[in-house]
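Severity: low
Component: inverse-folding endpoint
Summary: output formatting inconsistent between runs
Steps to reproduce: submit the following structure tokens with default settings.
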């Protein structure tokens, strides 16, 4: 059976709240640092205190050793503050001189310096009336004039703090207090930081597809949360516009499809109700017209759906002037069309899609023109320009963007031609945008002037060379 990996987020004991996780992580880091600080500090204090007491004992032992070597060692060694001294014969182990409190007492320790050293450091813990606690002992080997080889021991009481864990306990208690305060502060700080996120979550939960007008509260914190709230609001703006656009599109599409379907159904029903009173040919001709209108609308909707899907058009070099002349030569328009084009105006794009743009512009111009339609192709800087002009009534400046909205038909268009769908110009603009260009209505003295601008292809030869050079 193959082994499965359980993600960390699925562990039952792991806190799911960001606030709890951040606080727990901060406590772990701070606790580890405090523990290391306690251990290092306690060890350093122990070393400093022990070194100080050892130095006191060593200094006293050294003074007595110097006196013994010089022959000035008395039997009763003068008492020093907190220091007990014994001089022990190296041969017999007998105490030959000592401080008054140690008179008649056996040696404090049997520890002797090694052969390679003249000093020994040790600790003696022997509870008695003289040594109620542990003492730190330092001994020096020396040759006394009166006693021969001897060892001078000096003992100082070990500080009580070295004999227990009180220092560590106090420091550990302080660390616990500091850790608790740090956890409390981190909990409050993270909670205050995440409070705007909770407000955003609450507001997001209230948003539904039927009401996209609500927006996230934007905190004035100038941090990532403020940027998140602004980004969410911008996304909601785009989503609201897209949904509204989709609703309007569906409504308009339903309306446009209803008209030919209703006409077709009415004619068929009339023909069925009164077969003798209707002309079959006329009925079929009208039905064919309604079916053709349905076909045009459905074809336009499918084209828009393909463009909305974001599919990249097939690209190949083509001459825009040749394309214009080829489309005009089809002779499918009502009025004559004049073409003026510069040679070698090359673009890179999908020939079928760009031909559809030109055809839609020509059909629109032919529908509104009075007597003539003109097409001009030229190069302008780094762009290829195709203009379609007519001598009709033109488009008012306030309507020049509306005509590119889907299913939008101006009143003048409906009066001149009731058969349009209002999708030709929107499809043309979408194709232009997909090719990295733009389509707009420019100023003109008379009629409408539609301008298509596409990136100019300067040198298509490298695409045709097999070696790519």
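Observed output (run 2 of 3):
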């Amino acid at each position: 059976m193959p082994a499965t990996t359980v993600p960390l987020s699925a562990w039952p004991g792991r806190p799911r709240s960001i606030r709890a996780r951040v606080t727990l992580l901060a406590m772990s880091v701070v606790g580890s640092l405090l523990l290391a600080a306690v251990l290092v500090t306690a060890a350093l204090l122990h070393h400093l205190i022990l070194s100080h007491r050892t130095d006191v004992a060593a200094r006293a032992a050294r003074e007595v050793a110097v006196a013994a070597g010089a022959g000035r060692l008395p039997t009763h060694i003068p008492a020093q503050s907190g220091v007990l001294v014994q001089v022990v014969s190296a041969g017999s182990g007998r105490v030959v001189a000592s401080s008054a409190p140690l008179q008649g007492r056996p040696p404090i320790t049997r520890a002797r310096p090694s052969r390679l050293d003249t000093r020994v450091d040790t600790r003696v813990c022997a509870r008695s009336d003289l040594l109620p606690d542990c003492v730190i002992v330092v001994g020096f080997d020396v040759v006394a004039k009166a006693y021969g080889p001897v060892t001078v021991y000096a003992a100082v009481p070990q500080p009580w703090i070295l004999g227990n864990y009180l220092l560590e306990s106090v420091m550990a208690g302080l660390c616990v207090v500091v850790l608790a305060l740090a956890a409390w502060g981190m909990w409050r700080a993270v909670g205050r930081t995440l409070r705007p996120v909770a407000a955003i979550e609450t507001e997001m939960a209230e948003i539904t597809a039927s009401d996209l007008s609500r927006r996230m509260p934007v905190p004035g914190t100038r941090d990532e949360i403020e940027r998140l709230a602004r980004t969410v609001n911008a996304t909601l703006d785009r989503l609201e516009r897209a949904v509204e656009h989709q609703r309007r599109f569906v409504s308009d599409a339903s309306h446009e499809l209803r008209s030919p379907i209703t006409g077709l159904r009415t004619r068929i029903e009339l023909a069925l109700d009164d077969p003798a009173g209707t002309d079959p040919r006329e009925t079929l001709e009208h039905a064919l017209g309604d079916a053709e209108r349905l076909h045009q609308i459905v074809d336009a909707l499918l084209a828009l759906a393909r463009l909305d899907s974001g599919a990249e058009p097939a690209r190949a070099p083509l001459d825009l002037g040749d394309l214009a002349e080829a489309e005009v030569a089809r002779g499918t328009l009502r009025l004559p069309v004049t073409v003026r084009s510069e040679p070698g105006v090359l673009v890179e794009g999908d020939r079928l899609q760009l031909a559809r743009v030109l055809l839609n512009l020509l059909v629109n111009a032919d529908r509104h023109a009075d007597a003539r339609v003109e097409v001009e192709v030229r190069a302008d800087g780094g762009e290829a320009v195709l203009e379609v002009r007519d001598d009709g009534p033109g488009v008012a400046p306030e309507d020049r963007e509306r005509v590119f909205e889907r299913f939008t038909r101006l009143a003048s268009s409906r009066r001149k031609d009731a058969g349009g769908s209002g999708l030709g110009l929107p499809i043309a603009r979408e194709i232009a945008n997909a090719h990295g260009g733009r389509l707009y209505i420019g100023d003109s003295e008379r009629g409408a002037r539609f301008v298509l601008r596409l990136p100019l292809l300067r040198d298509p030869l490298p695409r045709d060379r097999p070696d790519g050079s």
